UniProtKB/TrEMBL annotation:
Primary subcellular site in the record, as a coarse category: membrane
Residues in Major facilitator superfamily (MFS) profile domain copies: 27-476
Protein name, UniProt field: Major facilitator superfamily MFS_1
Cited InterPro entries: MFS (IPR011701), MFS_dom (IPR020846), MFS_trans_sf (IPR036259), Sugar_transporter_CS (IPR005829)
Biological source species: Thermobispora bispora (strain ATCC 19993 / DSM 43833 / CBS 139.67 / JCM 10125 / KCTC 9307 / NBRC 14880 / R51)
Transmembrane residue ranges: 93-112, 118-143, 155-174, 180-201, 213-233, 239-260, 280-305, 311-334, 346-363, 369-390, 411-432, 452-472
Alphabetical UniProt keywords: Cell membrane, Membrane, Transmembrane, Transmembrane helix, Transport
GO cellular component annotations of the record: plasma membrane
Signal peptide: none
Region (Disordered): 1-21
Compartmental location: Cell membrane
Length: 481
């Protein structure tokens, strides 16, 4: 008989989709160059401050604002910068931030007086916030393959240390050879060349989705932090200065208003609910303390070498190179140390190193060589703080909130830098003025000021040690019953 059954041929197995090809590294080179410039400008002016003070008759408060205004605007507007890149598109926002950064740099370089210089630094910081946020968003959008993304983010994290190191060297070199104005004017051709390269190397990366900008909240946050910095800086005129306490009161009112409004918002610019996570909140505090030590330390040290030891700007910049090199070397071994110690214990060791270095500078600032060794110790403790804190803070955030979570961590980082300069600089300036009134020489007053300023940073390190101890308990693995 004829078999009527028919065998249906097996359907071929589904063809898996072809994996995405690796993205070219040319975009990372362009975006990384812009981020390097942004980070460089947080320290490039430090070595030039005494020269700027003489050129523009800028006092201690004005010099603090020259540094603090940049990092203040940069930190307080980072989340707004991320929102702008969401709404208008990443490459478009990157190019707009780059153009504004170049224009603000030209304003700083051509400033006829201190008010114009500080105004330029405020605008420069705002542009840096848009530029940096758009660049990081573009990096995450372009490099989707896990291996590429890991390399890209590792390089991005290292740009902070590299930029801070290059900044003090370049600031001293330009100030000595071409004049302090070129510490800003050099950004103009860099912005032009980077913009041209971005048009060729960075894809358009259109807007993600329509979202409200929340600019009023961003401006209120910036105003509150600026009022706080103003009040802290004016305290160098004496604890009875009414303007100082008025600034602090206005800051408290504005920041309280921001917190209440954002806690009730459906799509907040500041995701303050993340601070209910203990590890996230402690990581945020730790980043503020570490940034205060880093930026406040370079601010104090650059003035110390010039005022207490009469070094030229370029020599003072070179004196800070060992601090930067120790940071770079520490960054190379951080992954291995974290694997052995755990991130929280590594952070504890980093805080101890910062306390040791700051303590040496409190009790022994008369010898430049000893001061340099102390700065090397502090430098080694910086990447050993930042990497663990970013890792611990972001690891307990839901994937859907990873963007705003990392943005708020960056905000705490940069805000801590601004407040570190304000507090340490104010204490140092008050100590210098007290020494001069007592008949000390300028060099002796500079030494006393440095010691007093680093006492503030030593207190930050003590708080970091306490912070690290709590984080060790919170991140300790739970043993099986």
């Amino acid at each position: 008989m004829h078999d009527s059954t028919r065998t249906t041929p097996a359907s071929p197995p589904p063809v898996p989709p072809a994996p995405d090809p690796p993205a070219p590294w040319s975009a990372m080179a362009v975006l990384g160059a812009a981020q390097l410039m942004v980070m460089l400008d947080s320290t490039v002016v430090n070595v030039a401050l005494p020269t700027i003070g003489r050129s523009l008759s800028a006092g201690a408060a004005a010099q603090q604002w020259t540094v603090g205004s940049y990092v203040l605007m940069y930190g307080s507007l980072l989340l707004a910068g991320g929102r702008i890149s969401d709404v208008f598109g990443r490459r478009r926002s990157f190019l707009a931030g780059l153009a504004l950064f170049g224009a603000a740099s030209a304003l700083c370089g051509l400033a006829p007086g201190t008010p114009a210089l500080i105004a330029g630094r405020f605008v420069q910081g705002a542009a840096a916030a848009v530029l940096s946020a758009a660049a990081l968003s573009a990096v995450l959008a372009i490099y989707r393959l896990p291996g590429q993304r890991r390399l890209a983010l590792t390089a991005w994290s290292g740009l902070g240390v590299v930029g801070a190191t290059i900044g003090v060297i370049l600031g001293g070199l330009l100030t000595t050879t071409l004049g302090w104005r070129w510490a800003f004017l050099i950004n103009v051709p860099i912005c032009v060349l980077t913009g041209i390269a971005a048009l060729r190397a960075v894809p358009p990366l259109s807007a993600v989705r329509r979202r409200p900008l929340r600019l009023p909240i961003a401006l209120l946050t910036t105003a509150g932090l600026a009022a706080l910095s103003y009040g802290l800086i004016r305290l160098q005129d004496g604890a009875g200065t009414g303007a100082a306490w008025l600034g602090i009161l206005v800051a408290a009112l504005l920041l309280t208003l921001v917190a209440v409004r954002q806690a009730r918002a459906e799509d907040p610019l500041l995701p303050l609910h993340l601070l209910r996570l203990p590890t996230y909140a402690l990581s945020s505090v730790g980043l503020s303390l570490a940034a205060a030590v880093m930026i406040g330390g370079t601010y104090l040290a650059s003035g110390y070498f010039q005022r207490a030891h009469g070094m030229a700007a370029i020599t003072a910049g070179l004196a800070l190179v060992p601090m930067g090199l120790s940071s770079l070397l520490a960054a190379l071994v951080v992954p291995r140390l974290a694997g052995r110690l755990g991130f929280a214990r590594l952070y504890l060791c980093a805080a101890a190193a910062q306390l040791a270095g700051a303590g040496i500078l409190v009790i022994s600032t008369g010898n430049a060589l000893i001061a340099g060794v102390a700065l090397v110790i502090i430098g080694a403790g910086l990447p050993s703080s930042f990497v663990p804190l970013y890792t611990i803070g972001s690891s307990h955030v839901r994937p859907a909130e990873s963007g705003v979570g990392s943005g708020l961590l960056n905000t705490f980082n940069q805000t801590g830098a601004a407040l570190g300069v304000a507090v340490a600089g104010t204490v140092a300036a008050a100590a210098a003025a007290s020494s001069l009134r007592a008949g000390a020489t300028a060099a002796q007053a500079g030494t006393h000021a440095t010691s007093a300023g680093f006492a503030v940073l030593a207190a930050c390190a003590v708080l970091a040690l306490i912070n690290a101890t709590v984080l060790i308990r919170l991140t300790r693995p739970v043993s099986a019953p």
